[in-house]
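thought: fold this chain, then report.
action: predict
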Amino acid sequence: MDHDWLTLADLARETGRDQRELERLTLRGRIPAHKRGSEWQYHTTEIRGWLEQELRGFTDAELAVFEQSQGDAASDGETLLSMYLTVEQVQIPLEGRTRRSVLEALVETAGRTWKVWEPAVLLQAVLERESLMSTAFAGGVAIPHPRQPLPASLEDAVVAFGRTSSPIPFGAPDNSGSDLFFLVACRDTRTHLRLLARLGRMIQKPLLLNELREAGDSAQAFEILCGADRAIEGR
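observation:
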């Protein structure tokens, strides 16, 4: 989904959804679309934003189908999350008492690997995304990410996780504070959406969130996340 425009058939293939359903949603104004002649056209930036919002309301089963539509399974011996998250990219506690300071700490944590070439660009992209709409969920979790892929600023996709000592205001829909943060930054849209879907499945598990809040250190939190990732893949 990294070229500018999609046809209806392209959108069905990219999302793994029925073309007739997508056309009905388009006609009802539920999907951002542009009529060019007799054909519907969809701009990738608008569709990416629409998909991100759609994913927030998906069930685990719907997220699993969508995740599969975005690409192949992880290679042998690796789960999806383990391809992009290492123990060095987990920080407990994560220092920060404001939205900006938390995002700065997450970018710093992600930058412990060779994957982030331009931390300042990544930080600015994440701040701009948060200014448009918060990435916080009910239940104390937030998944900050840039609005667009950053192929010039990253060697590879990267995920970072941090837990603050206490919840901070982050714009959650239930007005609760957030204390569990997953930073996601990718070079391409497919990987971005797959990771959002995977994390969306994980944060629907209350026991996992409790375990992350009770983790004594970064290494323990990393093992908890890896275990949850393996469980989703049935490994």
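thought: worth noting. The radius of gyration is 18 Å.
final: tokens above.
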